[in-house]
Amino acid sequence: MAEMVKVAVDAMGGDNAPAEIVKGAVEAANENGHVKVFLVGAENAVRRELEKHSYKPQQIEIVNATEIIETAEPPVMAIRKKKDSSIVKALQLVKNGECDAFVSAGSSGAVLVGGQVIIGRLKGVERPPLAPLIPTEKGTALLIDCGANVDARPSHLVQFAKMGSVYMESVMKVRNPRVAIVNIGAEEEKGNALVKETFPLLKNCPGINFIGSIEARDIPAGYADVIVCEAFVGNVILKLYEGVGGTLIKKVKAGMMTSLRSKVGALLVKPALKETLKEFDLEQYGGAPLLGLKGLVVKTHGSSEAIEIKNSVLQCVTFKEQKINDKIKEKITLEDE
Amino acid sequence: MAEMVKVAVDAMGGDNAPAEIVKGAVEAANENGHVKVFLVGAENAVRRELEKHSYKPQQIEIVNATEIIETAEPPVMAIRKKKDSSIVKALQLVKNGECDAFVSAGSSGAVLVGGQVIIGRLKGVERPPLAPLIPTEKGTALLIDCGANVDARPSHLVQFAKMGSVYMESVMKVRNPRVAIVNIGAEEEKGNALVKETFPLLKNCPGINFIGSIEARDIPAGYADVIVCEAFVGNVILKLYEGVGGTLIKKVKAGMMTSLRSKVGALLVKPALKETLKEFDLEQYGGAPLLGLKGLVVKTHGSSEAIEIKNSVLQCVTFKEQKINDKIKEKITLEDE
Hints:
- By secondary structure, chain A is of the alpha/beta class.
- In chain A, 45% of the residues lie in helices and 16% in strands.
- In chain A, strand 7, helix 7 and strand 8 (209-215) form a beta-alpha-beta unit.
- Chains A and B meet through helix 8 and helix 9 of A and helix 8 and helix 9 of B.
């Protein structure tokens, strides 16, 4: 029998905690018998939610945590002071080896800082990037880094390219993933200081399939599998994806409501349209892994519902089964010698 | 009688030159009797296109230019060497005061560099930003800077905020335009080094209505009128707007073609949808002004068709009539004392 994958879940994190978090965790356990979920949070509240569902008791365990880190709290201070918060207790479980991974819809800052401070980086990793999957016309692409390390240096971006390649190859099963750096033109001499310095390093980096610069316009078209950028730019890309998508869909809906003729049409196209647009819904893809840690941390949207939590927990299983961290260590250290 | 506004148009720039450029210029002249257009480019080719249209001869003049600057050419070198190119000759017309403004769909690099080198900056302006209008749910917003000055300093961003405010107030008639800086979180302490340093300067800057940080997600929703950012980030925002928009509309169309039911619906919603989505088409808004020069330079998309050229030429009229450059000079120098 395969070993159980143990996942700590922040039962108190996000706008829909604990109800949707508990629901998603139970769904993941019910879908995959090799998962054991540790629901970390206020015991009574979590138990009340659990009672609404059916599950195998050996797959779910509650770990009591009396404090909650709020989104607005300065992360470093919160991690240091709130020792009995769901985030700190869950991260401790991963650090101690009691869990393999941690999933949270809570404070991004606290999860990112806590992951680095409590779990710690893999040997050789300079900065752990946050790397969400984003939808493209051809499937998905990994946006790396997307909020963990602003003002990164060229050597960090090279490591992001390596870690992202491992992830897309082993978790998403993309053969020889195409790596590109976000730039403001296709030519090598274009860009800001960071990109100009990083470009030749990526070009000469063994073990990755670097295809050059990518303009933001070409990201949704699916021209690359691993989109390398500094965290500020990555965060802008991720959030604009959501923003433009949301606004356009609103416009489409409003456009359909302008005449009787179009209203009738809207009723007819609705089911097909809903199905297609689902592919462009970021929440379908589970959370964003924080790569390069001794253990896995997955950050989901603050607005996560059960489906995203479930997908994120199941993502942890693939991550462990594919021994991603061993592969990252290998790629990082091999080429650094 | 009002003074004529004289606009030099790069007849050879862009994918659809000279046909669409000439067509757009003629349309602008026919729509506004106070415009005189100078079509700069290969005389014979331009004349052949002109012969296809009706116009008042006193409103259109051809200025022969025997060279063309290609998009791929390094801009500084091209501007220096190709003295008889349409871009250099048109910029000379503005420099000499024979024209008030210049519109080009040609090489962005050459237009930006040439504008600064040949026409020159207004007194007090450190760096002239490129500032396109982008569509939002509530109308439009000015994205400033969007490609002219990568690796800008905080003082540049403050000037962008001032120039953008003048533009939105005087050209777009937005009262007391809301200025925001692109950031990765709403709180003042968030951001990269540039944003953290710029934030307090904007907060204390008189003469602008600074409302704080804006996350990329909230740009399409129309939370601000002047979106201040460094050029690399601005370029990513502009191009991703186009990219996500294009991909989503493709998805919507494909979604409507998946069943007989939805195909019938598509026929019914199409006209209404087309009308609504037009508001989200960047090309409807004319080109992007390069602000802060002694004269106006407007850069349009490389793929510009007649409508964008026409709108850009007409934009130059408003710009001159509203005495934008006087207002910019006033705002920049006043607060610097």
